[in-house]
Design a protein that fits this description.
single chain, mainly alpha, two-stranded antiparallel ribbon, 47 helices, about 65% helix, ATP-binding protein, P-loop_NTPase, ATP binding
């Protein structure tokens, strides 16, 4: 019976009821150790079984946190027989992740989609993950991803997390939460009465209730381990240790009172995280412990033995393991290593063996190194880093230890862990050869840049590039490009700015023959920043063609190398005003990132694609890209949200996201985040006609090398300056935009330049520029700028007293801007139309207007003939969820079939 948790029980039961009706539910239950999370989940399991649900469990275990996909395997193991029904790519991804087959590192999205499909086909289903703070990183990412995409499945997912957090569980942030507080005094007294059969003196009872602070486990356990004098109303000093610590101390005292063999058996059970009873008994036999040793431990209520070994509470496991002597812990791990099958589970055997070592052991270290390779192959970077770190600790020879510490640091950095610098300190103790020393300095520089987004990062990267030049020319060239990209991103125009870094990069080693795309990109950017834009454009175009799979054999270079630089290549395509190339490179970047399962880099890939979709006027698809990026929760996905909100004219949303970005930029020195926010604010203010505010924001944005490199800031500054009556403030931006447009020769660039010249011109010259701008922009995909050109041309015509011509341009602008959802600019066009004496027509309602952004995206994909499974793979949703969305789409559009959907003209 659960005491005092009626509201919480009702919330969980409501999730189950909704799932029975065809919906899904996700909840994160948070609270301190012993607060009742496990009891609440136990009640939910019992309720779910009574309602006809299937129930699948997993639990994070601290000792298991280094094994990639271990927690996910726990949850999915009962369903794996159904995996043969999944599409082959999903089968492969899941099989490689669980070590059931060989293959390249699995796409995390395919793993997540495979898990989602397995769960969806077995509903109604309750998935319970207890102690999720101890899940391995790979499992936490995939399960949180699945929870965000569970959609219309009859699946309930519940995660229990201990507060205060003991590990980084950011993967679950943003999911619905239920925080458990302590029991009230009345409920606490009721629960205490179930634990203490003898009558209690009121003073003693009140003291126990007060010191337990409403913690249910404390109320049940503290009386069992309290000295008898307390029940007699003694006057000993109060214990000020935290409640969970006191509970753990109680479990430890209870364990220490057991016979020696029973205590040792508990240590082995605590060291073996899988709960495999057969394995435990083999390890016990290895130590000469008879099965009878389990009886005292069971009688003490510490754990129970069945097909699986279960501790009464996770705090029992940690209490037992921490209380054990180092010798006993090593004996337990040694026995477990001896009885773990090296063929079936080599990594867990290697880990146990490593924990049994005193001092150093090259054989154990080498075995861990091999485990790290297998973990990396499965996509478990965090696990690989943990194995390599322990391998370095066990390595006797200093040179080998330094090499392994360096590899561990690289793996930790890739996995996003903070211990990389500590491992670099170990590696720096050496001895390292010249190549390894240069790689160490390179990693130190990358950590410095990513940690501060500026400061010494570009300079340190330059130093590393120089050191690598005679040792590894290819890596040296990549590092020079790293430094150049860092200088562009930081926007520092001082001694460490782009020009200075580009000058230094001229000393890079010669490129190989034939040059790689990355070599062409470096040379093109160096030429651009040292000799001028016009001189650099031909080289930049060659580089972009090399990155474009349509211009070469897609297997001519390594996709992983391409993937790393496509972020810079896409922004460079914007710098030469090549809209088609931006779309092509952004799409390729997203595809390669998804295939590699590189969750951390997906938001950056989607950002370039989202920005280009916004500029193309396809706001609904841009919205969907932002939603997909948000589902990963790997980094804050604010940039895309900010730009989209600004172009839509949503003042409150733009201001809110802008404020968040500025706060985050202040926290880690990210000037570019602030510059990008200023660009978005300039768009918002220009749309609303607040030109002085737009001028302030655009001027700030134009100070950024990143925004001038990608040509985002120029036109906003020019329009704001001219409309504020300060055309002289636009001179530098206009000169640069004009020269770039001429050098690039593209409709996008020439159109923007012509419109900008029109804004600063008068009379027939202005009109000629406006018409040229419209003609050029019609020939590219940047629909937002075409619509805005019709708008400013119409405004100019009205001020010239030419109402009929103004109405024509303003009608076109209003229609285009309204259709794409640029409401502030559309409202500006409507005001101008009214000033001509014409009432703007309301946009004609379209059946598709009733669709959400996600429904519109699904409808578009289905209209191409894609199956529900294919659409689900594209959007990381299960086929069942796609079918549920289709039912809603059909209802809203008053159609009944996919064929009818194909016949509709969707925006």
């Amino acid at each position: 019976m659960l005491v005092g948790r009626r509201a919480e029980q009702a919330a969980l039961e409501q999730l189950l009821a909704r799932a029975q009706g065809g919906d899904s539910g996700v909840l994160v239950v948070r609270g301190e150790a012993g607060i009742g999370k496990s009891a609440l989940l136990r009640h939910m399991r019992e309720t779910a079984v009574a309602m006809g649900f299937g129930v699948h469990d997993a639990a994070g275990v601290e000792a298991e946190a280094e094994f990639a996909f271990a927690g996910l395997h726990q949850l999915c193991a009962p369903l794996l027989a159904r995996a043969v029904e999944l599409p082959e790519p999903q089968q492969t991804a899941l099989g490689v992740a669980f070590g059931l087959r060989e293959g390249a590192a699995p796409d995390r999205f395919l793993v997540g989609l495979a898990v989602l499909s397995l769960l969806a086909e077995n509903g109604p289903l309750l998935c319970v993950v207890d102690d999720a703070q101890w899940l391995d990183q790979a499992s936490a990412q995939v399960l949180a991803f699945v929870a965000r995409r569970v959609g219309a499945e009859r699946v309930v997912m519940v995660f229990a997390l201990r507060d205060p957090g003991v590990t980084d569980v950011e993967a679950f942030s943003g999911l619905p939460e239920l925080r458990l507080a302590g029991l009230g005094a009345s409920d606490a007294q009721t629960l205490l009465a179930t634990a203490v059969r003898a009558p209690l003196d009121d003073v003693v009872r009140d003291r126990i209730v007060a010191e337990a602070r409403g913690n249910p486990l404390a109320l049940l356990e503290l009386p069992r381990s309290a000295p008898a004098v307390q029940f007699a109303g003694g006057f000993e000093l109060p214990d000020v240790v935290s409640v969970p610590r006191r509970i753990e101390d109680g479990f430890r005292r209870r364990a220490n009172s057991l016979p020696a063999d029973a205590r040792m058996l508990l240590v082995v059970a605590a060291a073996e995280p899988t709960g495999d009873a057969a394995l435990l008994w083999r390890a016990a036999a290895e130590l000469g412990i008879a099965r009878e040793a389990a009886a005292p431990a069971e009688a003490a209520g510490l754990l129970e033995f069945d097909f699986r070994v279960r501790f009464r509470h996770p705090l029992v496991r940690s209490a037992v393991y921490r209380a054990a002597t180092p010798t006993d812990r090593r004996r337990a791990h040694g026995a477990l290593a001896a009885v773990t099958d090296q063929q079936v589970d080599p990594d867990r055997r290697a880990w146990h063996r490593a924990q049994a070592v005193v001092g150093t052991d090259e054989d154990a270290a080498a075995e861990l190194e091999r485990s790290a390779g297998r973990a990396r192959a499965r996509g478990g970077l965090a696990a690989a880093a943990a194995f390599l770190k322990r391998a370095a600790e066990l390595t006797p020879r200093p040179a080998v230890r330094a090499e392994r510490a360096l590899e561990a640091a690289h793996a930790k950095h890739e996995a996003g862990a903070s211990e990389a610098l500590e491992l670099l300190t170990v590696a720096a103790a050496g001895p390292l050869d010249a190549v390894a020393q240069a790689r160490l300095e390179l990693l130190r520089a990358r950590i410095a840049f990513h940690g501060a987004r500026g400061g010494e990062g570009p300079r340190m990267l330059l130093d590393a590039a120089k050191s690598l030049a005679p040792l590894d020319p290819a890596l040296s060239r990549e590092t020079y490009l790293d430094a150049l990209d860092a200088a562009i991103v930081t926007g520092d125009r001082g001694p460490g700015g782009v020009r200075a870094v580009a000058d230094a990069a001229r000393a890079a080693p010669a490129p190989p023959e034939p040059p790689r795309p990355v070599d062409l990109l470096l040379d093109g950017l160096v030429t651009t920043f040292t000799q001028g834009y016009a001189a650099g454009v031909p080289g930049l175009r060659r580089a972009l063609d090399a990155f474009n799979p349509h211009e070469r054999d897609d297997h001519a270079v390594n996709d992983g190398d391409d993937r790393r630089w496509l972020w810079l290549a896409g922004r460079t395509a914007m710098s030469v005003f090549d809209d088609q190339m931006v779309h092509a490179l952004a799409a390729r970047h997203v595809r390669l990132v998804r295939e590699a399962g590189a969750l951390a880099t997906l938001p950056a890939a989607l950002l370039v694609q989202s920005v280009m979709l916004v500029l193309s006027g396809d706001f609904s698809r841009a919205d969907e890209q932002t939603a997909i990026a948000s589902a990963t929760r790997t980094v804050p996905v604010l940039h895309g949200q900010l730009i989209l909100a600004a172009w839509r004219g949503r003042s409150d949303e733009t201001t809110e996201v802008h404020a968040t970005m500025v706060r985050e930029a202040a926290g880690h020195g990210g000037r570019t985040e602030d510059f990008l926010a200023q660009y978005a604010m300039a768009v918002l203010h220009n749309g609303r006609g607040d030109y002085p505010a737009a001028l302030v924001a655009a001027t700030r944005a134009f100070e950024s090398d990143e925004l001038t490199h990608s040509n985002l800031a120029h036109s906003e500054l020019i329009e704001a300056a001219c409309r504020s009556g300060r055309p002289e403030r636009a001179t530098a931006a206009l000169d640069q935009l004009s020269s770039r447009a001429l050098a690039s020769g593209t409709p996008w660039g020439l159109g923007l330049a012509a419109r900008s010249w029109a804004l600063v011109s008068t009379g027939p010259a202005a009109e000629e520029y406006y018409r040229e701008a419209i003609e050029q922009l019609r020939n590219c995909q940047v629909a937002t700028q075409l619509a805005r050109t019709h708008l400013v041309y119409g405004e100019w015509l009205r001020r010239e007293g030419r109402r009929q011509g103004a109405r024509q341009q303003l009608r076109t602008a209003h229609q285009m801007l309204s259709d794409m959802g640029a409401q502030a600019f559309a409202a500006r066009a409507a005001r101008e139309l009214r000033a001509t004496g014409e009432h703007p027509r309301s946009r004609s309602a379209q059946p598709s207007d009733a669709l959400t952004a996600q429904e519109l995206t699904i409808a578009r994909l289905v209209a191409t003939g894609a199956t529900s499974r294919e659409v689900g793979a594209q959007l990381f949703l299960s086929p069942r969820t796609i079918e549920a969305h289709l039912r809603s789409i059909f209802r809203k559009l008053s159609i009944t079939s996919r064929r009818q959907l194909r016949d509709l003209r969707l925006p």
